[in-house]
């Protein structure tokens, strides 16, 4: 039987979000209905509201979520009712060329439950990133659910579903940070802060946090940065070189998504160092580089999409580390709010006041 619950809708371009009654159909083959416990507020939700991702309004926002499986459709074996799960927005197919070559992070046939949730008048909702979890319940593809240890705070675990995973993965999966490496992270918001934490987890010896906001540098220190650079007054490239014996860092992670910070990342790496772009640029952004500088420095220029994560491999592992006290996911939860507070949470995010606001249902 279809169910009616409350959810946060973005009705039209730049219109304030509001709580509405939404209709959740029964799960079809391969689908699951999840009772959402928590869902973090991410920049991507704001981008949806601003019309920056698609114009398929209205959206059901929210995608950094943890919850309990309530019911599953035909043929679902991955999860069962009662399982505690973290949701992901890339359920890999297991059959495409990328999957078959052992690189499911680049799967090009990821699937989700599509547009089956509606308003009470039948208007179809587009779920943000195929999830839509600022709602008491949501309908997803079963492959979007990863079972993790339930003895964990859902607010923290849910953050693994997007930004925090992107940051940790930029360090440990994409950057391949290893024991003893020097790592610089440019931009230490939620994603960059998580990259700092990932670098510590991977055993980096020197972790240089760069930001223009002193509050973010303080948090980065708490998360494991050994040095900080306030880029509002100092040239970060010079500062990173000085802090690495004149060489530059082995791995530099760009977590802002702007041409000028990407350029800094490019020049702040050691010879044969790796640059990872995890900040999301906009389509019109360009940078120009002397080709000789690309040639002459060697190394690798990489991008990290969703932290190159494999949810079924990475979520349970990171939850284990969290439970053992080796990964401070709680540090990202600046505040917990209700479903009616998402608009205000967007304002605080925009002002840089929070790492993450988390909606608790
Ligand atoms: N130099 C250094 N840091 C900067 C600069 C700069 N020129 N400009 C902005 N920053 C810092 C901000 O002060 C902030 O701390 O970058 C950080 C960006 O963090 P958030 O706004 O919290 O964004 P976050 O959620 O971490 O996402 C970062 O990744 O997912 C994408 O769309 C997202 O592109 C964004 C990036
Ligand atoms: Zn695939
Ligand atoms: Zn997100």
From TrEMBL:
<dbReference type="InterPro" id="IPR020843">
    <property type="entry name" value="ER"/>
</dbReference>
<keyword id="KW-0560">Oxidoreductase</keyword>
<comment type="similarity">
    <text>Belongs to the zinc-containing alcohol dehydrogenase family.</text>
</comment>
<dbReference type="InterPro" id="IPR013154">
    <property type="entry name" value="ADH-like_N"/>
</dbReference>
<dbReference type="InterPro" id="IPR002328">
    <property type="entry name" value="ADH_Zn_CS"/>
</dbReference>
<dbReference type="InterPro" id="IPR011032">
    <property type="entry name" value="GroES-like_sf"/>
</dbReference>
<feature type="domain" description="Enoyl reductase (ER)">
    <location>
        <begin position="12"/>
        <end position="361"/>
    </location>
</feature>
<keyword id="KW-0862">Zinc</keyword>
<keyword id="KW-0479">Metal-binding</keyword>
<dbReference type="InterPro" id="IPR036291">
    <property type="entry name" value="NAD(P)-bd_dom_sf"/>
</dbReference>
<dbReference type="Pfam" id="PF00107">
    <property type="entry name" value="ADH_zinc_N"/>
</dbReference>
<dbReference type="Pfam" id="PF08240">
    <property type="entry name" value="ADH_N"/>
</dbReference>
<dbReference type="InterPro" id="IPR017816">
    <property type="entry name" value="MycoS_dep_FDH"/>
</dbReference>
<protein>
    <submittedName>
        <fullName>S-(Hydroxymethyl)mycothiol dehydrogenase</fullName>
    </submittedName>
</protein>
<dbReference type="GO" id="GO:0008270">
    <property type="term" value="F:zinc ion binding"/>
</dbReference>
<dbReference type="GO" id="GO:0016491">
    <property type="term" value="F:oxidoreductase activity"/>
</dbReference>
<dbReference type="InterPro" id="IPR013149">
    <property type="entry name" value="ADH-like_C"/>
</dbReference>
